[in-house]
């Protein structure tokens, strides 16, 4: 995604680090660069707003559940593999597929 305008920080770089920004897991100097970009780029600002809203909704709905300590690192590792093109998301099994009878084996 890009607004087509030149920016000091490229839109793809901003979106690659959006969750780090939302989770406050990046150095202040990098956060400042993204904040400047959001002021200049309405498509990235819109994506930021959407992801922020989803994060708040998940927190409100699931914020009280205990999560295994290694789950976050596993999820982040999987996201990084997918972003880098090294991993492909596993195909989800639909309800119809899960309930379908299996062929009889001879």
UniProtKB/TrEMBL annotation:
One matching Pfam family: zf-HC2
User: Where are the stretches annotated Disordered?
Assistant: 86-106
- Annotated ranges, domain Putative zinc-finger: 11-44
Superkingdom of the source species: Bacteria
Protein name in UniProt: Putative anti-sigma factor
Protein's organism: Streptomyces sparsogenes DSM 40356
Read off the lineage from the record: Bacteria, Bacillati, Actinomycetota, Actinomycetes, Kitasatosporales
């Amino acid at each position: 995604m890009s607004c087509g305008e030149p920016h000091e920080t490229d839109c793809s770089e901003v979106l690659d680090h959006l969750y780090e920004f939302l989770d406050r897991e990046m150095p202040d100097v990098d956060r400042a660069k993204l904040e400047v970009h959001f002021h200049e780029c309405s498509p990235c600002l819109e994506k930021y707003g959407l992801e922020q809203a989803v994060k708040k909704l998940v927190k409100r709905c699931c914020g009280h559940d205990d999560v295994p300590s290694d789950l976050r690192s596993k999820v982040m590792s999987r996201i990084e593999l997918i972003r880098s093109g090294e991993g492909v998301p596993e195909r989800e099994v639909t309800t119809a597929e899960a309930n379908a009878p299996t062929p009889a084996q001879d």
